[in-house]
Design a protein that fits this description.
The structure is a homodimer of 497-residue chains. In chain A, helix 5 links the parallel strand 3 and strand 4 (146-149). A 7-stranded mixed sheet of chain A has the order 11-13-14-9-8-15-16, with helices on both faces. A 5-stranded mixed sheet of chain A has the order 17-2-1-18-19, with no helix packed on it. A 5-stranded parallel sheet of chain A has the order 5-4-3-6-7, with helices on both faces. The longest helix of chain A has 24 residues, at 62-85. In chain A, helix 13 runs parallel beside helix 15 (401-410). Chain A has helices at 7-24, 29-45, 48-58, 62-85, 134-142, 155-171, 187-195, 208-220, 241-260, 281-293, 303-317, 346-351, 372-381, 394-399, 401-410, and strands spanning 92-94, 107-113, 116-120, 146-149, 179-182, 199-205, 227-230, 237-239, 272-276, 298-299, 323-327, 336-337, 340-345, 363-369, 385-391, 411-416, 455-461, 482-484, 487-489. Chain A is built from 15 helices and 19 strands. Chain A folds into 2 domains: 7-231 and 441-455, Aldehyde Dehydrogenase, Chain A, domain 1 (3-Layer(aba) Sandwich), CATH 3.40.605; 237-416, Aldehyde Dehydrogenase, Chain A, domain 2 (3-Layer(aba) Sandwich), CATH 3.40.309.10. At the A-B interface, helix 4, strand 1, strand 2, helix 8 and helix 15 of A face helix 4, strand 1, strand 2, helix 8 and helix 15 of B.
């Protein structure tokens, strides 16, 4: 099962995928959506063996995995529905004006898949961001075949998910090359895929080192290709003075809960909390310490993740001025991840770039500042983030305009009085952010807009109606929203008028 | 006037631009659109001195320049109107469901400018693709300040256009750093700009060599940035058998007209025409020869362009199997560009990659094929193109499905019975294509969608209504189209319902 796929076999899969592409791209948006609903059904139909496999391979609890399975099914269904709605892959029609000098042609723009997409799944979401996860669903929705480089952390889970997709492919009568998984426990397999001329785009969720290596490979090809790599961040939380004054204990409890949720193994884990020196600070820290001390350590996804957590945490704790505030149950055995919160002064944080590095796991750094200038300098020094959070009263917002304005420059999602863990799958979600949170801040990897990463516009000029793709035909047979002569409408185009 | 801007001065302009960014990004879409209309007015108000400067610097005729000026003004106005319509920078709102477990947050996504954009204009469109051209208008629409690296071919024209933008900036009370031009006749100035940490995106129109060099620079930065480089193509035209049979003379005349329009100096110039060996072929070639022979040579944009044209043309003509079919008025003096059409068999074209290279200017290569397999192989061998064209009867379309399907893979715009010169500014236009036609086929550099190159989504979660950007407020004060809970609507959000 976990044997590496040979380079020869990968070549074969790529050839099949390219053949599948040329067939699949001829399907209309409704047919594509219907296939995606079929995939959703097949995943939904996977029984307890899926949950059991994932539990064994990831240490994630059953309830979480059940929730993640439902989320994965929902991704396929909602992205499918977005195709039919017509508001993600925009359809633009500008009709002719033959009487103009020179005559204005008829132009109709749809979207077409880029070609074969290679997906590198994450270990922390074995369903939702892996084999049958958001990148795969986005690429299929865009009209692309997908080759997944299976995450070595959960090969059996991947095989079950890959089986569900392949069953749907067969039931839909689509070419089997539309989806395949490739196994490789070294960098070479992925490198071969990303460098292959038939591959036209890459989706990645994981570490900065991994994402950057793939970005460089993709950019150096004779034909560079787009890559969307989501590489995590420290997701800073700014607790502002009035809120601290009014709700120190509540904020401490909520922060501890978000920090330790899922053993801190989320891309949006709030790794840094920034707070003013204020009479209520001690109260906040006291409650936070209690909460963390009372957190039971839990097993992390796998030994590699846990080893990295302990190592990176030790590096941070060894930095000048960093003091441990709370440590859950001391040193833990095996691949357990014990929650730790430390504190440091803003002046020391500003002087040491290492303190801004992500520690993947339940590690929080409380940064205390003496004045607003320090807080602003701190925001300025932060690299790009997936999220930034304000815990604030309305009057805090008014007195921290510059800080807030700066934070809009630094993140893809800005939260007010909430915590960034929990990434909703919806149109308005932005999961991605300025580099190095992701390699291209213009796209998201969550929500129907994620489809746009893998599609490109294609315009037809003066093309006969009967030869146009369905979404561009005068009659609007798919009944979708289209921009016709600048106006959004679902109406057909009637030249008799 | 044409002195190079010093590196120190460029640093100063970048600092001003960044300051301007932080102010300008707070303007709402209506304010931005109103500023863009002001720019359009200022350009429109430029009198005969603009046309005179451009004529002196580019050799383009007055009528063409008057048309291009109107086109440039239209770009600013139509991109401004697209902002107000709300169908380019998508607004997505998903309202909260507090009763769900876990509670569903309120999420609202708008777009924000990437930051300072550096624009490298083209020489062949001194108005529409240069200082105040489409890239500048797109970036300003997206909420970004712009620094243009002035094209050394038309510095005086650029200065007038830059003056018009700066006047509009002043009249609108916006910070002067919002727009600046930089002069540099070497690669260093551009290199410094593209490598600067404050620069967040690049727009380029020009040669493959220039675009690729900037792409590599942008990708190698510590913080890689997006670049959209439109690098031209040979824009293949396929004349299919039935059309050749029915309209050989007409097609020859139209092809010659498109090939020689503006001395062949368009990115979409149809440099290659593919046609079957057919009894009517000689008729087609005969008329084409007559048309080309009768074309008066005209002066090209500048000496560099004309030198490159004669050099690249000579390289193509020296290739094995290439025969000159027609040459307008023999060798021409100075920077004139004389039209030349040569022919070659498909088998020889397929064996020599050089024959697919663009010759910027009025040079056409007629490739003749013996059977459909050769035509398909030819389409397969083509690199990415801005456009591909079918000259065909309906029955040709039916009998050439594979060829047509292949061409959709190779281009951004597919034409039926027309010619690719003439790039309409409208929503449905795609100007860009698979690499190497452009560096990112997911975007266009013409039409309101060009704005998307320079904007990124930003989501607000659970943010108080009064602190949201106007386009996200419940009341929809800008009265724009928004996707609310998956449905496109202009209605306000009323929680009392």
């Amino acid at each position: 099962m976990s044997e590496n796929t040979s380079i020869q076999a990968i070549e074969g899969l790529l050839t099949l995928a390219q053949e599948a592409f040329l067939t699949y791209k001829r399907s209309n948006l409704k047919q594509r959506a219907s296939f995606m609903h079929q995939v959703a059904d097949e995943i939904e139909a996977l029984g307890p063996e899926l949950i059991a496999a994932a539990q064994a391979e990831t240490n994630l609890p059953e309830a979480r995995l059940m929730g993640e399975k439902a989320r994965t099914v929902f991704q396929w269904r909602s992205y499918a529905d977005a195709l039919i709605a017509g508001n993600v892959l925009d359809i633009r029609i500008d009709t002719a004006t033959p009487t103009r000098t020179p005559p204005k042609p008829d132009l109709r723009k749809t979207c077409t898949g880029l070609g074969i997409v290679v997906v590198f799944g994450a270990s922390n979401f074995p369903f939702a961001f892996s084999t049958a996860g958001g990148d795969t669903a986005s690429a299929i929705a865009a009209g692309c075949p997908v080759i997944v480089k299976t995450h070595p952390g959960h090969p059996n889970t991947s095989a079950l998910m890959a089986g569900a997709i392949s069953t749907a492919v067969q039931k839909a009568g689509l070419p089997i090359g539309l989806f395949a998984e490739v196994r490789s426990d070294s960098f070479e397999g992925g490198q071969f895929l990303v460098s292959h001329p038939l591959v036209k785009a890459v989706g990645f969720t994981g570490s900065f080192a991994g994402g950057k290596a793939l970005y460089d490979l993709a950019a150096k090809r004779p034909e560079p290709i787009p890559i969307f790599a989501e590489m995590g961040s420290v997701n800073p939380v700014f607790l502002l003075p009035k809120k601290l004054e009014n709700a120190a204990a509540e904020m401490a409890k909520q922060y501890a809960a978000s920090l330790t949720l899922g053993v801190g193994q989320f891309c949006t884990n709030p790794g840094i909390l920034v707070v003013p020196n204020h009479p209520e600070l001690q109260h906040f820290l006291h409650v936070l310490k209690q909460e963390i001390d009372n957190t039971a350590p839990a097993r992390m996804l796998h030994q590699g993740i846990s080893d990295a957590y302990h190592k990176n945490k030790a590096v941070l704790l060894a930095q000048s001025g960093v003091k441990v505030l709370a440590m859950a149950e001391g040193v833990s055995a095996g691949n357990h991840g014990s929650a730790v919160v430390a504190s440091v002064k803003a002046s020391q944080f500003l002087a040491n770039e290492k303190l801004g590095h992500e520690v993947f796991g339940p590690f929080g750094l409380v940064v205390t500042y003496d004045n607003l200038e320090e807080a602003v300098a701190l925001a300025q020094t932060l690299p790009g983030q997936l999220t930034a959070t304000l815990l604030a009263e309305q009057q805090d917002l008014e007195s921290h305009q510059t800080l807030i304005e700066l934070l809009t420059e630094k993140c893809g999602r800005l939260l007010f009085n909430g915590f960034p863990t929990g990434v909703e799958i919806c149109y308005a979600m932005q999961h991605g952010g300025p580099y190095p949170a992701s390699t291209d801040s213009r796209f998201t990897s969550v929500g129907p807009d994620a489809i746009r990463r893998f599609a490109r516009p294609l315009s037809y000029q003066n093309w006969p109606d009967e030869s146009l793709p369905d979404e561009l035909k005068n009659a609007n047979p798919l009944e979708i929203w289209r921009t016709v002569n600048g106006e959004l409408t679902k109406e057909p185009i009637d030249f008799r008028l």
